[in-house]
Structure formats: C-alpha cells, structure tokens
C-alpha cells in the first residue's frame, strides 16, 4: 500500500514564517529554521519552504536560509518562490534543497520545465499550481495568486507532466487558510489522471480533512500550515489518527 506523506508548509517573508487566508492578511508565526527542526522531530515526512515575496534583492538571504535549513534538518525539503532559471534551481540544490517548486516562471515559459527536468532530473522538479475555481472551472493563477492565466488547472497539470515534472503541488486558493477542508474534486481529478504524485494543499482544519483528501481526493501527500503552526493538533496525533483509519503513513 502506498505510504501517504504529511508535509508542513512554511511560507517565508523577510526571514520569518507567515500565514494568511486566501493568500492575504499575513501573520508572523516564527523562525523558519527552528520550526523546520520542530516538525522534523515530530515526524513530518517532508517540508516545503516558499519565499512568498521573492525578489532579486532578497535572493542572497534566501539562499543563506536554505543552507541553514539543510544543516539543521534531516528530512527532504522543497524550496519555492522566485525560481525563474536553471541557475536558480542549481543554487537551491547546491544550498541543500532536495527539490525546487516552480510556478510563475513555468507558466511564462513552459519549455523551462523540460530544461529543468533534463538538467536535474524530474525527481527534483515540483510544479506548483495555484488554482481558483470560478464559474465551475479551475483556473491557474501566478505571481502569488495575483494574476489569472488562460490555463485550466487540468490542462496545465497534464502539460507540465508531459514536459517532465516529477510532482504537482496543487493549492486551492478558494480553500487556502479557511480550515474548511481540501478541494477534493480537483485533487481527485488530477490524482487519477496523472502518473506523478499530487500534493494537496489549502484548507486543512481537522484531522478528518486529511483522511478525506487521501480517501476521496486520492492525494499522495497533504500539505498544511496553520493547523501545525497554531497547534490545532500535532503531526504524531494526525498520523496515529490516519493509521487507525486505514491510511498507511510513516510513524
């Protein structure tokens, strides 16, 4: 049976972990390296670090933070935010990241996904899809959820998979930070359609939501932030609950 992964997400702004609702109204929740160590000790399977306001002038500080994370934690972690070039990917992997997450740059230049996969291997390339449901259809957004594209989420996920992406990180903007549950329908559509893993993100509020996204959403992994940052429950509690309900997890 496939082992499902639990992945805390740390959105980083100006060197601090932050969390908002629908991508806005951000609150500071702590040092990203210290939080990463805490989640690793708790039994997180992986971590995702996202520089949510990545700019050129902050790139050096971001690389240094990635190096500190790599020195302090012993589980795989993904880095995203402002990844635009082959050189950016190389810097993050050399700094110690196991994978990079790419969103806006891939939409602007889809061939970048091919080049990244050829250069570093598909296993290193995560394509982040920020999707918003409007009028019954899921549309891809870029630039931190600020710009709508012409891509439907399903079509874009298929496109990047064919170009060599190794994993999809699907975030529902409608559900982000609401703690009302994951977007099960679109998650299941992608999980059943694609030959690569799908990580569900956006909306976790109760342990039952994780159970549903694995059972009904068919997700390979579930990512969450506020429920862990604000202590609604711990990763060991969540994994024990999932195990008791027939979901295979690493304890």
In short:
The chain is an alpha/beta fold and 251 residues long. 37% of the residues lie in helices and 28% in strands.
Structure description:
The longest helix has 14 residues, at 59-72. The model is unreliable at 21-25 (pLDDT under 50). The protein is globular, with a radius of gyration of 17 Å. Helix 1 (32-42) runs parallel beside helix 2. It has an 8-stranded parallel barrel, surrounded by 7 helices. Strand 5, helix 3 and strand 6 (99-102) form a beta-alpha-beta unit. With 251 residues, the chain is of the alpha/beta class. The protein has one domain (5-244): TIM Barrel (Alpha-Beta Barrel). The two termini are 15 Å apart. It has 10 helices and 12 strands.
């Amino acid at each position: 049976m496939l082992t499902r992964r639990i992945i805390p997400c740390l959105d980083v702004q100006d060197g601090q972990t932050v969390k908002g609702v629908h991508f806005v109204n951000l609150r500071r929740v702590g040092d990203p390296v210290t939080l990463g160590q805490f989640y690793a000790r708790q039994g997180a399977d992986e971590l995702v670090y996202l520089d949510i306001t990545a700019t050129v002038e902050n790139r050096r500080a971001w690389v240094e933070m990635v190096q500190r994370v790599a020195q302090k934690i012993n589980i795989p972690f993904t880095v995203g935010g402002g990844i635009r070039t082959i050189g950016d990917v190389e810097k993050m992997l050399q700094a110690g990241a196991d994978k990079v997450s790419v969103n806006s740059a891939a939409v602007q230049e889809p061939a970048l996904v091919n080049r990244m996969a050829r250069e570093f291997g598909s296993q290193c390339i995560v394509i982040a899809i920020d999707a918003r449901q409007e009028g019954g259809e899921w549309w891809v957004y870029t630039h931190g959820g600020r710009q709508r594209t012409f891509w439907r989420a399903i079509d874009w996920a298929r496109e990047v998979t064919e170009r060599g992406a190794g994993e999809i990180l699907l975030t529902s903007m409608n559900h982000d930070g609401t703690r009302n549950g994951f977007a099960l329908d679109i998650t299941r559509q992608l999980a059943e359609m694609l030959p690569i893993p799908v990580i569900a993100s956006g909306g976790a509020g109760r342990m039952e939501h994780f159970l549903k996204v694995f059972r009904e959403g068919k997700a390979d992994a579930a990512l969450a932030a506020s429920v862990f940052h604000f202590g609604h429950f711990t990763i060991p509690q969540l994994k024990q609950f999932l195990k008791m309900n027939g979901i295979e997890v690493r304890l």
